[in-house]
């Protein structure tokens, strides 16, 4: 007979999941205090670390053991704690750092996730319930949180994992002018133009993002091939492109909203052009639902639920993408998987 309380018992994964909120906070504390940065030179005792960080040594030691249980740290003889290879990703200077993401989860999303039951009962946005205003308005009202959100979205790990995987999966060399609608800080366009030397690019987004995008473009040495254009995709998008890319964009909007910028792309796209969405795709029916791809897809969908409520942005199924694209005047032609959890969804003017 299997003991359900034993670590190998059938209930163990469920119990671990039930304590997920605690796990998120332990990682948040580690990221916020910069514990991984303090350990990058080698193992240290909790007392030594506490003096450096200005925190309570006894409490810190217990959090460090929590990090050991998560595989982030290991404990040596003499009570010295060091970083594991996994823990290296919490260092601020690691090429694929998740430090900003762990802090964002702890300072912003954690409070929203606590409202999940209320969201399911009412369908209302947790942001409205917790902050009293829509999510992006909350970020705008608090510049520090807004900057944290931007850092998490622009992190090198995000670029390498999601954006670069999309650039590698689809052949962009066929295009003359690529317009990145909602291009943010220009990270995707920089990846595109570095890999493909012939196209030129436009990063199109709200004017307040101009400085960040121009900095990305200049740092990449792409100023001669790329420029930023400010505007509102719900009003119009720049013309002349033979490829219009929207990455992590339509997931934020309900169909009646998402169709507007897509239709604006349809108005100006070249007759033989391509609309390319870089998005998560929710499997349905008996489609495979395994591994990190599915977990990451569901996680993103639940983030959308908590931030926007049930009647707004969500991760769509293939049939839902097809219907949305048709409503905007496009025909879905391909769904290209990437090595990450997103797809490149290709559509032609109908």
Q: Would you mind describing this structure in some detail?
A:
β9 and β10 form a beta hairpin. It contains 16 helices and ten strands. By secondary structure, it is α/β, with parallel strands linked by helices. α2 crosses α6 and α11 packs across α12. The strands form two sheets. A seven-stranded mixed β-sheet has the order 6-5-4-7-8-10-9, with helices on both faces. A three-stranded antiparallel β-sheet has the order 1-3-2.
List the strand order in the largest sheet. Answer: 6-5-4-7-8-10-9
Calculate the terminal CA-CA distance, rounded to whole Å: 62 Å
Number of strands: 10
How much β-strand is present in the residues? Answer: 5-15%
Helical amount = 40-55%
Structural class of the secondary structure composition? Answer: alpha/beta
What is the alpha-carbon Rg in Å?
A: 22 Å
Main sheet summary: 7 strands, mixed
Order of helices and strands: HHHEHHEEHHHHHHEHEHEEHEHHEE
The geometry reads as globular
Topology:
Blueprint: H1 12-18, H2 20-33, H3 35-38, E1 44-45, H4 46-53, H5 57-69, E2 73-76, E3 80-83, H6 99-113, H7 116-122, H8 126-130, H9 135-141, H10 143-153, H11 156-169, E4 177-181, H12 187-195, E5 200-205, H13 210-219, E6 226-230, E7 243-247, H14 255-268, E8 274-279, H15 291-308, H16 318-327, E9 330-337, E10 343-349
Parallel strand pairs: 4-5, 4-7, 5-6, 7-8
Antiparallel strand pairs: 1-3, 2-3, 8-10, 9-10
Helix pairs in contact: 2-5, 2-6, 4-5, 6-10, 9-10, 11-12
């Amino acid at each position: 007979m299997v003991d359900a309380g034993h670590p190998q018992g059938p209930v163990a994964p469920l119990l671990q999941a039930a304590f997920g909120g605690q796990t998120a906070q332990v990682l948040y504390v580690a990221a916020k205090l910069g514990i991984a940065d303090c350990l990058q030179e080698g193992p240290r005792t909790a007392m030594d670390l506490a003096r450096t960080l200005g925190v309570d040594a006894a409490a810190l030691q217990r959090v460090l053991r929590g990090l050991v249980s998560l595989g982030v740290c290991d404990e040596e003889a003499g009570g010295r704690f060091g970083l594991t290879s996994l823990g290296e990703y919490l260092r601020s200077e690691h090429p694929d750092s998740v430090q900003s993401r762990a802090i964002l989860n702890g300072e912003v999303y954690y409070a929203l996730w606590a409202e999940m039951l209320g969201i399911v009962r009412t369908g209302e946005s947790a942001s409205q319930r917790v902050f009293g205003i829509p999510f992006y308005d909350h970020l705008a009202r608090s510049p520090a949180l807004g900057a944290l959100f931007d850092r998490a979205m622009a992190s090198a790990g995000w670029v390498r994992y999601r954006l670069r995987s999309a650039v590698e999966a689809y052949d962009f060399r066929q295009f003359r002018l690529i317009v990145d609608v909602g291009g943010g800080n220009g990270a995707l366009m920089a990846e595109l133009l570095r890999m493909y030397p012939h196209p030129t690019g436009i990063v199109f987004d709200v004017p307040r993002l101009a400085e960040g995008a121009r900095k990305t473009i200049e740092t990449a040495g792409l100023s001669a091939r790329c420029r930023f254009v400010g505007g509102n995709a719900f009003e119009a998008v720049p013309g002349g492109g033979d490829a219009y890319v929207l990455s992590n964009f339509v997931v934020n909007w309900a169909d009646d909203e998402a169709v507007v910028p897509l239709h604006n792309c349809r108005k100006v796209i070249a007759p033989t052009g391509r609309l390319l969405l870089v998005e998560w795709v929710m499997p349905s029916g008996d489609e495979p639902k395994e591994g990190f791809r599915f977990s990451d897809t569901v996680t993103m969908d639940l983030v959308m639920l908590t931030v926007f409520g049930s009647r707004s942005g969500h991760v769509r199924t293939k049939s839902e993408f097809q219907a949305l694209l048709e409503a905007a005047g496009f025909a879905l032609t391909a769904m290209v998987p990437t090595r990450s959890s997103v797809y490149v969804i290709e559509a032609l003017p109908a």
